[in-house]
Specification:
The chain has 86 residues and is mainly α. The protein contains 3 helices and no strands.
């Protein structure tokens, strides 16, 4: 009796396909925002990245704090649309 599970390459590919697409989109967004700082010194680039990430996290947190319902705005609109269709 073996305790190990045999996984094929196809099992791993099918599980990570969606994650790879999301990661690729995130990388493309970051690269497009960092184009301005690429020709600057490394310290400037690091400071630019730090400020960009702080702003992005702050904006996301303010959107989360603004919502006082158990579901977030996107989920709420999707549920309301499903109720209308039913």
């Amino acid at each position: 009796m073996s305790r190990f599970i045999h996984l094929t390459r196809q099992d791993l590919i099918s599980r990570t396909k969606h994650t790879n697409i999301m990661l690729n989109n995130l990388c493309e967004v970051l690269n497009s925002n960092f184009q301005d700082g690429r020709d600057k010194p490394i310290i400037y680039c690091l400071e630019f990245i730090r400020e960009y990430l702080i702003k992005k996290i702050f904006n996301a947190q303010t959107n989360i704090d603004r919502c006082h319902c158990p579901f977030k705005p996107t989920s709420t609109t999707l549920l309301e649309d499903m109720k209308k269709q039913a």
